[in-house]
Amino acid sequence: MVPMVQDAGRSTRLDSKEPSGPIADRWSQHKFNLKLVAPANRRRFQVIVVGTGLAGASAAATLSELGYKVKALCIHGSPRRAHSIAAQGGINAAKNYQNDGDSVHRLFYDTVKGGDFRARESNVHRLAEISTQIIDQCVAQGVPFAREYGGTLANRSFGGAQVSRTFYARGQTGQQLLLGAYSAMMRQVGSGALDLLPDREMLDLVVVDGVARGVIVRHLRTGAIERHAADAVLLCTGGYGNVFYLSTNAKNSNVTASWRAHKRGAFFANPCFTQIHPTCIPVSGSYQSKLTLMSESLRNDGRVWVPKAKGDRRRADQIPDEDRDYYLERRYPSFGNLVPRDVASRAAKERCDAGFGVGETGMSVFLDFRDAIQRDGEATIRAKYGNLFQMYERITGEDPYKVPMRMYPAVHYTMGGLWVDYNLESTVPGLFVLGEANFSDHGANRLGASALMQGLADGYFVVPATIASHLAGRVLPKVTTDHPAFAEAEGAARAMTQRFLDLRGTRTVDSYHRELGLLMWDECGMARTREGLAKAKARIAELREAFWQDIRIPGDAENINQELEKAGRVADFLEFAELFAEDASVREESCGGHFREEYQTPEGEALRDDENFCHAAAWEFQGQGKPEARHVEPLTFEYVKLTQRSYK
Amino acid sequence: MSAASPTAVQGAASPTGAAGTKQGLKLVLKVWRQGARGAPGQFETHELQNVSTDMSFLEMLDVLNEGLIREGKDPVAFEHDCREGICGSCGFVINGQAHGPQKETTVCQLHMRSFRSGETLVIEPFRATAFPILKDLVVDRSAFDRIVAAGGYVSVNTGSAPDANAILIPKDNAERAFDAAACIGCGACVAACPNGSAMLFVGAKVSHLAALPQGQSERDHRALDMVAAMDKEGFGDCSNHLECVASCPKGIAGTNIAQLNREFAKASLRSGSR
Ligand SMILES: Cc1cc2nc3c(=O)[nH]c(=O)nc-3n(C[C@H](O)[C@H](O)[C@H](O)COP(=O)(O)OP(=O)(O)OC[C@H]3O[C@@H](n4cnc5c(N)ncnc54)[C@H](O)[C@@H]3O)c2cc1C
Ligand code: SF4
Ligand code: FES
């Protein structure tokens, strides 16, 4: 059954709490207006941080430093293993150390425009402002960023930026930033101030009198179901890219924490805004379990091309320049290979769909370093990208110093997420959402090197200030885990587990996840149509039905049971996917990563409809099997003029 | 150790579009099975046919598990997440080598083209006193986190940092710090060491921070406290076998151990009473 949409229109339920006044003063003014919790009172408040990626680890460390009582939970055996660890390319900051004309305003401008005008201006400006403090903090922690010979920090340009504002640590920026945040957190653990609970999966949010007051978790190693009460809950549980099964996300990344919070009242915003990254290693077989990103930084030196002639099967080095189509340079002379991700991805798909793709499957394009190696020498290229080249060779068995890499787009990041106001608070009071799990700052397309920036901005600087609005602004009667709401939520979690174990069907969870992923990729991926989305919705519902009849979970719930873990996550993906498709079909425009074939310019670029869709759509759960209500937060652009993006 | 009845599982062999041109591998797997912490374990034998050489080692195990589940058996538990060699979740021993035969490569990045058809692969968990086995190939490595909590950080509260370029760091020092900071905390070094020592892991963290000006004020404490925590967790002593270095997927150098020894000796001298 396909749920119908109720369009609740401009919603009074969505108060963005966006400050007014000159944009550059808004954050300072807002901080000044915020309530404070006095240092001596902070230890009276228990905060639960779910997730220890960049957003969660930075928030847990900082709140603990401030004196709050903090519990940090994660699904991993160690907090350092969060998905953030895999980020490669870098983190943006408006330091203007390179004196190339960068500024807070320019970073703000680029991010609003890059997001195709679907983000809140005030949030983006705050992000740009905070960016510089993040770098200071990370350096002070000992994060070994790349440096110049003189000892100053090095920068590179990245992902469609015309200035060099990206800070990096070889190709392992996420690792080094996360280890920095992790070490700050472990310092608090060591001093006894922070309670670290690894191997815990959040199964439900506990809401008491309309306020988030705790979580139900499963201990993934003992199977124990635990209750944890709190005065505030921070969800820092990452993105939902794995709804596509194949993505660049880590295998355990999931929508479960967000989805279950959604079912307890947190609105889900813009689920259809997903990012497809243009340069990933192509799929090699049906057993493929994930896709590997090759950092966008490679496009600084690599040139993207396909043969000019269809089905040209010559080896790349046998194809002379005049027979090559450097299609990004051709179509976008001023940005060339550095166009934003959504643009580069669609261009690759267009060439492959038109029959010009390369490789055994014809579903890839070349990323060629020949000219860069000739110009700078192999040693220079090795110093810049050595680890990436090595990773490519390990996976494909091909040497990219000799033959061009082959690339194809893959799902990479999700701009949508739980709706939050300017304080990062969701529609459930006391539930804050940070990092990739929220929807806030990237609009319909995220620029490279800005997710790390946002996760750390949220965790180190935003929530530590805004959480006081909740803790000091509301009366929070004492709630313990004996409250009936905990029993109810625990009961529901146990019942779901039992249902899985009782199914004893015939198929594996992965087989359903794969099938869902293929469907999402075909109908909700790089190009979407009204018909395709309708088909997807119907098919998702069928798949979900079948899943709930037919999966087989071996073993019991009293021990490590990875199939049981996956079952819960895939069950949520199967519900969430339908909302995703619904959101994509209602948004009858193209913007950023959301490309509706019906809405494009004659040149095949995304065609926005600002008249009707210059808003964030936030969906409200209305009961199992019932249609969700669509609420709208209108977006206004006072500082960056609404224009058609052009990278020509 | 009893061998369970062999299970034949068909590997997903023909990559989509690859027209099945590549000949798949035939493999015999002897996999360690253990129900829970402290429970007895044994090797179980499985045969896989037609394994694509383009698969990663973990994808090969996925295929094995798919088959096991369909047969109503318990799949092999192993940890993994990023499958890109960076999160440090994966790791087990293949034919006596932690992370298997390919140099500087985690099992998730190891591909089946490293093996020959007809091979027998013995797959078992990392074994060390400080890493209790939890199930099959999953071990508890939380001791590493407790060592870091003892001193593997710079004490700087959020918001109190000076401008990033106020601290100049010569490029070479930054590179040295990075080389040591590249450790992924997988624990292969411990598993490979005949004594189950964590010196390479601890040495890497101590060297990373000792190479930077930010790490100086707590330098002595860090070395002393991390070593004390390491001892408390039951890791063994280092007797310079350097098996750790040979097994490390991130190329963490043995010089980090020497540096840890120096740091520890200097700090002990300076702290006198400790
Ligand atoms: C390969 C790759 C490269 C990237 N490179 C860059 C880059 O160069 N620059 C950039 O800016 N961005 C990059 N990104 C994006 C960026 O890494 C992520 O958006 C960001 O790290 C997300 O951080 P996070 O803290 O929000 O979530 P995550 O790091 O995903 O952390 C989620 C946390 O939540 C926990 N968790 C999840 N579900 C549950 C649950 N149900 N219960 C309990 N805990 C749970 C997990 O254990 C984990 O600790 C990259 C992404 C990928 C995939
Ligand atoms: S030193 Fe090497 S082997 Fe040891 S934990 Fe670090 S990365 Fe793994
Ligand atoms: S799965 Fe992350 S390092 Fe292997």
How would you describe what is shown here?
- The complex is a heterodimer of chains A (648) and B (274).
- Chain A is an alpha/beta fold and 648 residues long.
- Chain A has 17 helices and 20 strands.
- Chain A has helices spanning 23-33, 39-42, 54-66, 104-114, 121-141, 173-190, 256-263, 327-331, 341-353, 370-376, 378-396, 451-471, 484-503, 509-524, 530-550, 562-586, 610-613; strands spanning 6-10, 46-50, 69-73, 91-92, 166-167, 194-197, 200-208, 211-219, 225-229, 232-235, 268-269, 274-280, 303-307, 324-325, 365-368, 405-414, 417-418, 431-433, 615-620, 629-634.
- Residues 1-5 of chain A have low confidence and may be disordered.
- Chain B is 31% helix and 14% strand.
- Chain B is built from eight helices and eight strands, in the order βββαβββββααααααα.
- In chain B, the strands form two sheets. In chain B, strands 1-3-2-6-4-5 form a six-stranded mixed sheet.
- Mean pLDDT of chain B is 92; it is low at 1-21.
- Chains A and B meet through α3, α5, α6, α11 and α12 of A and α1, α2 and α3 of B.
- Bound molecules: flavin-adenine dinucleotide, iron/sulfur cluster and FE2/S2 (inorganic) cluster.
- The site of FE2/S2 (inorganic) cluster has 12 residues of chain B, from loops.
